[in-house]
Structure formats: C-alpha cells, structure tokens
Amino acid sequence: MKAVETLETVGGKWQPGSKTWDAILQGAATPKSQLVFASQTSLADTQGDLRGCIAKTFKFPPLLLSQVCFKSNGFAGCEPSLDGPGHHIDHSYWARFVVKQTHGRLRPKGSFIRHQPTQGLDPESSPLPSLLNPLHGPKTISHGWEWYEMSLFVRWTPASTTILCFDLPEPAKASVRNTLLSRAESLTHSDPYAILAAVLIPEIVALYDNSVWSIRNHICEWEATRKDELDYGLLHEIARHAIHISETLSVASESARRLQQQFQDFGARQTHGDGHQSAPHNPFSFLAGLLEGLFARSESNKARLQNEIMLAFHTAAQHDSKTQVQIGEEAKKETAAMKAIAVITMTFLPATFISSVFSTPFFFFEPGHESGNTLTVSSQFWIYCAFAIPISLLTWGLWTFWDISSRKKQARTMRWPDFKRD
Hints:
Keywords: Membrane, Transmembrane, Transmembrane helix. The chain crosses the membrane at residues 340-365, 381-402. The chain contains 9 helices and 9 strands. It is α+β, with helices and mostly antiparallel strands. Strands 2-1-3-7-6-5-4 form a 7-stranded mixed beta sheet.
C-alpha cells in the first residue's frame, strides 16, 4: 500500500512526513493535529473495504466515499456526537469544492466521457469513477482548461484532529504546507474548524479567484480585439466555461454558508455543554462573503459575454443588411439600364410595326440617272408619319401611365398602417 503525504504536530509545531492508510486508521500514536494529503487515486488503487474502514473510523456517512459524492459539484455537512450533559465526544464534518481553471488558449475538446450509471451507494460495493477515463481528466489541460475537485474530511475529538485533503492542487498544497510549517504558534486544538478556516478555505478561495479572473481575461481579450471574421466557436467555448465557473461558485458559496452555520452550532453546543464561552467571531462569514462577491463577478462576466454574443450577432446582421443594400443598388442600376433599353425599343418599335404593316417603300434610289444617282421620297410618306407618330406617342403614354400607377401602388403597400386613437 502506497504511503500518503502528511503534516502533523510534534511538540506544538508542524512536521512533514508520510504514512500508509493502515497507520492512519489504526491511530496507535495519533498526533494532536494531522493533515493527510491524499488523492482519489490512493483510494481507487485499494480494495473497496478501505473506504468502508475510513467511513467507520472517521464516522462519515458511507455515501461520502461513493461515486455520487466524488462526482458532485460541491457540498458541506457534519455529524457531531454528544454525551448526556451535552459535551462533544467527537465532531466530524466534510466539504467538497470544485474549481474550473481556464488557461491561455481555449479549444473545443471534440469528445466527452459518457457517464455510467451509479451501481450503489455502499463504498465497499460501489467503485469510484474510472481513473482511466475520468469525467474531468488531465487531458483537458491540452484544450485550455482543467478541473480541481477537492474533498475535505475532518475528524475531531478532544484528544486529536485529523483532516483528510483529497486532490488538493500541488500549488495550493505547497502553500498550505509552507503556511503551517512557518507558523510559530500552533492553532487552537479546541476548535475543529480552526485549520480549515485559517489555512485551507483561504487557499480554496484563492483558486476560485483565479478561476473567475482567468475567464475574465478571455472576455477582455475578445472585447479588445473584435474582428470582422467572428470566431463563434471560440465565443461559445468561453461562454461554456463561464457557465461552469458560475455554477461551481454558486455551490461553493452555499457550502461556505453551511460551514458558517456548523461553526456557530458547534460553538453554541460548546457553551451549553461545559460553560466555556466560545469566541463570537465566525471566520467563515468573511470567507463566505468573498465567495459571494466572486460569484457576483462571475455573473457579471456571463452578462458581459452575453452582451458580446448579442453584439456579434447584430454585427453579422448589420453586415448582411449592408450587403443586401449593395445588392439593391446594383439591381437599381440594372433596372435603369433595362429601362433605357425599353425606351429605345418603344421609340423604334411602333414605327417599324407601321412600316411592316403597310409594306410600303417610301424611299427610292435611282442609279444611272442623267443628273446622277438620285434618292427620291414617295409622295405618300405622310401616311407613314400620320400613323407612326400617334401610335408611338400613345405607346409612350400608356407605358408612362403604367409606370406611375405601379409606383403609387407599391408606395401604398409599403406605407405603415395608420392606427386611430380612441
């Protein structure tokens, strides 16, 4: 069985180390305070009965170590144990936080892992999510994002405190380690929430802060570099991540409020049980407020992104409208040309028609005449003029009347209807 990284108090100060799960569960020499940095892999690599032993030892509901909770987007809860007079025999609580972190360049993944139905809630019979094909695997980082899925389980007794930290990111883990190792004084042991409120939750809040501002960078970059050729795929990819970030922040804010209430309930029981006045300050109030502020900023990011999406569609529609106007202008030019051809046709067609009807030659050419070649006009040419000119004028008049009537009819059709007010 692989060892897991630990931090424990020795002589009032924190010391790094490592232990196997057997050593942690047996608790033969449990330190006063102990942090265990583990991963879902360390549980999945063992038999299912290990999860059952963890649930029994730390008095967690078996559901917490099942697929349902390991795939949840966040929660918080507790299970205190009191004796008859109201003293705390032990106090167990847990929380889960999920953070989505985006990076420099976002790309659609193009595939997904299909969710498999949960087989059961018993940790000894229900396998953990597949490590070969996790729903949120490390391969997503090549597409520009990754998930941090952190679970915290705390077991407190008057003699010791053990905190299990699952899947804390390496930078956050290093920061927690450095913070505790550099502390000159040890955190109070009488408060089971002291380490969580002073060290762990602030690190998680920092992860949410990075998550919100990283997606904000993508939105600002889009706003600052709007292009004529819009990348709708990228725009909707940013929107997808913004939706996930708001979802996780909403759940995290609710979880922080639950931890705040649990802290208050614990202090009230302590006061009621042994008469000791607990500190009135609730450290989770400030942290919950920070998360709510980040959630508000995340919602603002979503609104800005929705505004960009609407602008992109309106810009595209405006471009299409301009194109239609240009097409209309070209059509007008073609119409004017066709109208000119029609005018020329109407000018010559009636006269040609009359000439064809009468089939009369009005001009004569006589070569070899004494005075030379001569061109003579028929004495009946007036007949041609008498018919051709009136018919041409009549044709022009009819066409002009039809054109004006069509324009007026079209204008009446396009006019907005008049609404009479009562």
